Amino acid sequence: MERNSIDEKKRKLSGAALKQESVTLAIEKALFEEWVEKGYASISLESVAKRAGVGKAAIYRRWPSKFELVTELVNKTGADLIFIPDTGRLKEDIFQLLKQLRRVLRHRLIKRILPDLHAEMGRNSALAQAIRSKLQIQRRQSGEILIKRAIERKEISPDTNVEMILDLIGSMIYWRMIITKNRADSQYLHELTELILKVLKK
Fold first, then answer.
1. What is the pLDDT of residues 125-158, one digit of tens each?
2. Which residue ranges make up each domain of the chain?
3. Left (φ > 0), alpha (ψ -120 to 50) or beta: where does 192 sit?
4. By C-alpha distance, which of 139, 124, 111, 26 is closest to 67?
């Protein structure tokens, strides 16, 4: 009898954990959908809760404010979306990294949220600091690893301006896909890879 009672409690706890996770995922999805429709400035926790099908209390149990909700999810999503390739060859590493960036920038929500996020960061110094101090630094450090591996393999000079190369890799594909809204097909990625390599090996 006691064993059955313990098993029943475990099942209830497991079910509760799954339910809590589903609520969290619903809130995360609702936030990004609200952002696409309304822009950061017009997002309210009430509208996020309504879209997620939960009460506001469910949000406040997880995040104390809209600011914490947004910054945590942006940092989490950004960190999860891109990993730094390690193929053993700089050319292939750059190409694979560009492919990952293209995949991210094609996402139906991300491609619409990013311009608004960057505009809001220009107006909101606290938001800018929260994103730059975590996500952008993490991404930068990961990119530095890719370039430093190539230096260790003697593919490029130790005097390479790592900061400038990382700017080049990210900004060109962002400009093409988000600002000018042009396609970045495989040919474009190959040509961009060759251009970056030429700059690196000058």
1. 999 999 888 777 877 888 889 999 999 999 999 9
2. 21-65, 81-201
3. alpha
4. 124
Record the tokens describing residue 71, joined without a space.
């910054």
26 within 8 A of 54, measured Cβ to Cβ: yes
Express each pLDDT in 170-201 by its tens digit.
899 999 999 999 999 999 999 999 999 999 88
pTM of the model: 0.79
| Topology given in CATH for the domain delimited by 81-201 | Tetracycline Repressor; domain 2 (1.10.357)
Does residue 125 contact residue 132 with C-beta atoms inside 8 Å? no
Confirm if 197 and 189 have CB atoms less than 8 A apart: no
Instruction: Centre a 10 Å sphere on the Cβ of residue 177 and count the other Cβ atoms it contains.
Output: 20
Fold annotation for 21-65: Arc Repressor Mutant, subunit A (1.10.10)
pLDDT in tens, 14-54: 444 445 889 999 999 999 999 999 999 999 999 999 999 99
